[in-house]
Specification:
- About 40% of the residues lie in helices and about 25% in strands.
- With about 250 residues, the chain is an alpha/beta fold.
- The chain has a domain at about 1-70 and about 160-165 and about 185-250: Rossmann fold (3-Layer(aba) Sandwich), CATH 3.40.50.300.
- It is globular, with a radius of gyration of 18 Å.
- The chain binds adenosine-5'-triphosphate.
- Adenosine-5'-triphosphate binds next to helix 1.
């Protein structure tokens, strides 16, 4: 469904690239995880796919075809993003209805009230939320709105950048379960970036461990849960994960 081939991102001409030749492919309906310590380049991979990083090299392929260097409406109607901080990504002085209608307007699609209500329902929020402002919502409700805003254009792929890192643990589980249910119901394909192995283990079929802009190791979730990683850095990451116990089957 979506793939990157030899992706390189350089922010600084002299220094090491932030992403140094990353390749992977995600089948339709699957969730692929990118995991690694802060600064390893995982968010940059995701932002480069979304066209938010100027001047990357390598290919981004959607359904096997390269996407245009300047991402167009056709791309954003198929690929949407959800960021870590829903408070930062929502406009503080716009109603939820206005914010949900915006991506439809940007893509030249019809944004009637019924569509906004449907989007709210999809993420488990009452239509009455349409008149509220972001500060009147809890963190979890705000992230539900961010997911509704990504889904309102009916994309096929969601790029998820630490979608639950800013939330309390109990709310994290709710949002992860909602994302899983939506993926199953709609046949969505996810690329999930997280520093949290428990989140990756819960969500992903396959994952790649990144360090200093490169993929060190690819794993399927069974190997992650069994702890049979090959690269010493992956083993370190696993050992350091507070959630190590949760990753292993009881
Ligand atoms: N816009 C930018 N300009 C310059 N350097 C950047 C920019 N964005 C990221 N970087 C640098 O690129 C490297 C990779 O950052 P990136 O945010 O992709 O890492 P990450 O693994 O997602 O970490 P985190 O989870 O902390 O965001 C870091 O060294 C970072 O400082």
């Amino acid at each position: 469904m979506i793939a990157v081939r030899d992706l390189v991102v350089r922010f600084d001409r002299k220094g090491a690239p932030a992403v140094a030749g990353v390749s992977f492919a995600i089948e339709k309906g699957e969730t692929f995880g990118l995991v690694g310590e802060s600064g390893c380049g995982k968010s940059t991979v995701l932002r480069a796919i979304a066209g938010l990083v100027p001047g990357h090299s390598g290919d981004v392929l959607l359904d096997g075809r390269p996407v245009p260097a300047r991402r167009d409406r056709a791309f954003y109607s198929r690929v949407q993003m959800v960021f870590q901080d829903p408070y930062g990504s929502l406009h503080p002085r716009q109603t939820i209805a206005a914010q949900l209608a915006e991506p439809l307007r940007n893509l030249g699609l019809n944004g009637g009230p019924a569509r906004v209500d449907r989007a709210l329902e999809t993420v488990g929020l009452d239509p009455a939320f349409r008149w509220r402002f972001p500060h009147e919502l809890s963190g979890g409700q705000r992230q539900r709105v961010a997911i509704a805003r990504a889904l309102i254009v009916e994309p096929e792929v969601l790029l998820l950048d630490e979608p639950t890192s800013a939330l309390d643990v109990s709310v994290q589980a709710e949002i992860l379960n909602l994302l899983t249910e939506l993926r199953r119901r709609r046949g969505l394909t996810y690329l999930l970036v997280s520093h949290d192995l428990a989140v990756i283990s819960h969500m992903c079929g396959e994952l790649a461990v990144m360090q200093r802009g490169r993929i060190l190791e690819r794993l399927d979730v069974e190997r992650l849960r069994a702890g049979t990683v090959e690269h010493p850095y992956s083993a370190e990451l696993l050992a350091a994960s507070e959630a190590y116990g949760e990753l292993r089957p009881a």
